[in-house]
Design goal:
Largest sheet: 5 strands, antiparallel
Number of strands: 11
Radius of gyration: 34 Å
Strand content: 25-35%
Length: 169
C-alpha cells in the first residue's frame, strides 16, 4: 500500500474473490474459504536538522533595533547618522550585518554588548567635529538619507537573505 493509505484506528478493506473451476469435474465444489491477515507497522521518521539557524542570527532578529535616524540635520547631510541598539541580554556579532536602500553599509567585524549603542554616519570627520570621538561609530555609509523620506532596511549578514527591520520615515 502507498504510504498514508492506512490511518491509525479503523480502516475498511474491500476484497473481491472469484472462484474458477472446471464444473464437469467430480471434485467441483461451490464452497469457498478465504482468509487474510493484515499486519502493519508504524515507522517513526525523525527529522534531523543539519543546519540549524545559529543563535547569533536569531539574536540579531530579536535584539537589534534602529533607535534613532538623524536626517536633514542643521548644517547639512554630512551630520546624518543612524543609531542602533542591542535591546537584548546577549552580545551580538554584527559582522556582515547590512544596511540598504537609502544608504549602503556593511558592518565590519565587531560585537555589540547588551544595552550598547552603535552608529553609522554619513561623514565621520564632520560627525566627530560636531559630536566628539567618544561615541561608538561602526563606520561611514554610502549615500544619504532623503529628506522627503524613504525605506531603510537592516539585513542579516550573507548568506541569509532576510530583513531584521524595514524602517520607513
Amino acid at each position: 500500500l502507498p504510504p498514508g493509505t492506512l490511518k491509525q484506528g479503523a480502516n475498511v478493506l474491500a476484497v473481491e474473490v472469484h472462484q474458477c473451476s472446471d464444473q464437469s469435474s467430480s471434485s467441483y465444489s461451490s464452497d469457498i474459504v478465504w482468509g487474510t491477515t493484515l499486519a502493519a507497522t508504524q515507522r517513526t521518521v525523525n527529522t534531523i536538522i543539519t543546519n540549524p539557524i545559529p543563535d547569533n542570527i536569531v539574536n540579531l532578529m530579536q535584539q537589534l533595533r534602529i533607535t534613532e535616524l538623524m536626517y536633514d540635520p542643521i548644517g547639512g547631510s554630512e551630520y546624518e547618522y543612524i543609531e542602533m541598539k542591542n535591546v537584548g541580554a546577549a552580545a551580538l556579532d554584527l559582522t556582515g550585518v547590512r544596511m540598504s536602500n537609502g544608504v549602503d553599509f556593511v558592518f565590519p567585524a565587531m560585537s555589540l554588548e547588551p544595552g550598547q549603542f552603535v552608529l553609522v554616519v554619513q561623514d565621520l570627520a564632520a560627525f566627530q567635529s560636531r559630536y566628539g570621538t567618544a561615541l561608538n561609530v561602526a563606520g561611514q555609509y554610502v549615500g544619504r538619507l532623503d529628506t522627503a523620506g524613504e525605506n531603510v532596511v537592516l539585513q542579516l549578514p550573507d548568506p541569509y537573505d532576510a530583513a531584521i527591520l524595514r524602517f520607513d520615515y
